[in-house]
Design goal:
The complex is a heterodimer. Chain A is of the alpha/beta class. Chain A has 15 helices and 11 strands. In chain A, helix 5 runs parallel beside helix 6. Chain B has a domain of 39 residues: Orthogonal Bundle (Histone, subunit A). Chain B has a two-stranded antiparallel sheet. The chains are: A alpha/beta, B mainly alpha.
Chain lengths: 487, 95
């Protein structure tokens, strides 16, 4: 069952080949048998899952089921889940039982989907390797000595190891796409504002966006249909109707103009990754797409400005963790200042503290113009690069990550080197564009990710392009050797 | 860009984060590295460029000033570290 697509699972449930309870139990068993190897889950919600599956079976029996009714999924532990621990990968929220549901969680529930549990992640989504989690690193199912990417590394690893058929993630600077690339799955970051941020623990509010992570473009399109849409509880939600993201999957690619940014194929890109992309590009050419070299001249500035804008916004967002209303509180505080500083000093990990401090510095008196304002101006230049490019081409194609998965510990002592692993993903968040990563090869049994970037609200087009590629290639069907067995 | 130990202590105070004395040199080095890395911003001429706060330049939505939420104090306080009679407790602020 765990190698089936959502379409196959949905059909089987509707035909009664197996029940949602059986399907859910199958995935719970796989989690139980395999997750100790990769540490992809923080919380497994066995009882709630079986109860939800029973309810889903009833809905299916009554003939009221939707397409995803009874399908299990895993949520990144950044989404608030009513009555279930929501840790955000932090000691700060290790005792936090969310008092309400995120909109994304609510929508999945309303669609009859069954939550298997909450997936591991970099602390407060700050990281590119899943090594900053309070609950220990997630391991890449393709090589358990390597990182799965981050910050949605738990979701990516769980889907890759077939412990969940699909999962949710969030992407502030590449946190859906980079782990999708490193784990060999398909992940989509929608247009900023397309999916509600309500109940999604905030990191950098002008960049954060939730999206689906699954095995294929078609699977991801089905989940996007469920989670996207306007939400008045999110002040930056886009008040624009959602598309049916599965409607255009079968469109042909003849005449599609694909842009190849020269800055994405320059120095720094691993030669084996470049080779894998070359063969992928040939597939698109054969499908009738035309290729155009384009330039995104301010690409090199995306990572530097990210490390001003994201920390500035995080230092503001994370000021709510003060040891007073929820979350971790230090023992025996002597006064109010001691309560704040020790609760935060003890509750946050090193990377989170670094970013909060960079943000506090950049926003402090006398420095605002030199850092935050300057970064926001450069952000417009980066965004302008993309709008110029989309006057010439329909979609942009490049690598998701400069390398395949790196070893655990390899970059964890050097923040700046770690930050550069998001060099091809961050600019997209600056501009707020939709983008996805799809598997496009294996180098020494490690997946290579191909990134597709679309114009605003063109998720359906991106999914169409990705789906057509997945019709003529089978990289997305590759399963890591150690997770192939039936149970 | 190289920060001094005292600057890092000041930033930590602004951020209300206590640091262990032995960790301060590492933070000083890391934060200095990050600030050195972002310095390349200064090579860019940004005169007359309007800062970009929202990717789609959307403005905040307004709504009618009506009550839309119910009071959930007990629910929210059930997860608080310390409460009494509906109030959050903190160490004494005024002697």
């Amino acid at each position: 069952m765990h190698n089936k697509t959502l379409v196959e699972l949905s059909k089987a449930l509707h035909k009664g080949e197996y029940s949602s309870v059986e399907l859910t139990q199958h995935f719970l068993d796989r989690i139980k048998n395999y997750d100790s190897q990769i540490n992809s889950f923080i919380t497994i919600t066995t009882d709630e899952a079986l109860k939800a599956a029973q309810a889903a079976d009833q809905i299916i029996a009554n003939g009221d089921a939707g397409f995803l009714t009874g399908i299990p999924l895993a949520h990144k532990d950044i989404f608030c889940t009513h009555g279930v621990k929501t840790s955000c990968g932090s000691k700060m929220l290790d005792n936090f039982i969310a008092p309400y549901n995120a909109t994304v969680v609510e929508k999945c529930q309303a669609a009859g989907m069954v939550m298997l549990g909450k997936t591991n992640m970099d602390e407060f989504a700050m990281g590119s390797s899943n090594e900053t989690s309070f609950y220990g690193p997630v391991k890449n199912p393709w090589d358990i000595k390597s990182v799965p990417g981050g910050s949605s590394g738990g979701s990516a690893a769980a889907v890759a190891a077939r412990l969940a058929p699909i999962a949710t993630g969030t992407d502030t600077g590449g946190s859906i796409r980079q782990p999708a690339a490193l784990c060999g799955i398909t992940g989509l970051k929608p247009t900023y504002g397309r999916v509600s941020r309500y109940g999604m623990i905030a990191f950098a509010s002008s960049l954060d966006q939730a999206g689906p992570m699954g095995r294929s473009a078609e699977d991801v399109a089905h989940l996007l249909n469920v989670i996207s849409g306007f939400d008045e509880r999110d002040s930056t939600s886009l008040d624009v109707p959602s598309d049916d993201y599965t409607a255009n999957l079968n469109d042909k690619l003849a005449g599609l103009k694909i842009g190849l940014p020269k800055e994405y194929f320059a120095e720094g890109l691993d030669s084996n990754v470049a080779k894998a992309l070359e063969s992928a590009i040939k597939e698109f050419e054969q499908a009738g797409a035309t290729l155009h070299e384009i330039s995104l001249p301010n690409t090199h500035l995306a990572v530097p400005i990210y490390y001003i804008i994201a920390p500035a916004e995080c230092s503001s967002n994370l000021s709510r963790f003060d040891g007073v209303r929820f979350g971790y509180r230090c023992e025996n505080p002597t006064d109010l200042d001691d309560l704040y500083t020790r609760s935060r000093g003890e509750g946050f990990g090193a990377e989170v503290k670094r970013r909060i401090m960079i943000g506090a510095y950049a926003l402090s008196a006398g420095y605002y113009d030199a850092y935050y304002l300057k970064a926001q101006q450069i952000r417009r230049l980066i965004s302008q690069d993309f709008s110029d490019a989309f006057k010439q081409v329909d979609v942009i194609l490049g690598p998701t990550s400069p390398t395949t998965a790196f070893k655990i510990g390899e970059k964890s002592d050097d923040p700046v080197t770690m930050y550069l692993s998001d060099i091809y993903t961050i600019a997209v968040n600056m501009a707020g564009l939709p983008a996805m990563s799809i598997p496009a090869g294996l180098v020494e049994q490690r997946p290579v990710g191909l990134q597709l970037i679309g114009n605003y609200l063109k998720e359906a087009q991106l999914l169409n392009v990705a789906h057509q590629y997945q019709q003529v290639t089978d990289w997305h069907q590759a399963v890591p050797q150690d997770f192939k067995e039936v149970l | 860009m190289s920060l001094l130990k005292e600057e890092v202590e000041k930033i930590a105070h602004l951020a209300r984060i206590s640091l262990n004395e032995q960790d301060i040199p590492v933070y000083t080095r890391n934060l200095s590295d990050i600030l050195a890395f972002v310095e390349q911003m200064n090579n860019v001429n940004t005169a007359d460029i309007v800062p970009m706060a929202h990717p789609l330049d959307a403005t905040a939505r307004l709504r009618a000033d009506i009550v839309s939420e119910t009071n959930q104090r007990d629910n929210f306080q059930s997860i608080a570290p310390q409460v009494e009679a509906g109030l959050y407790l903190v160490p004494k602020v005024i002697e």
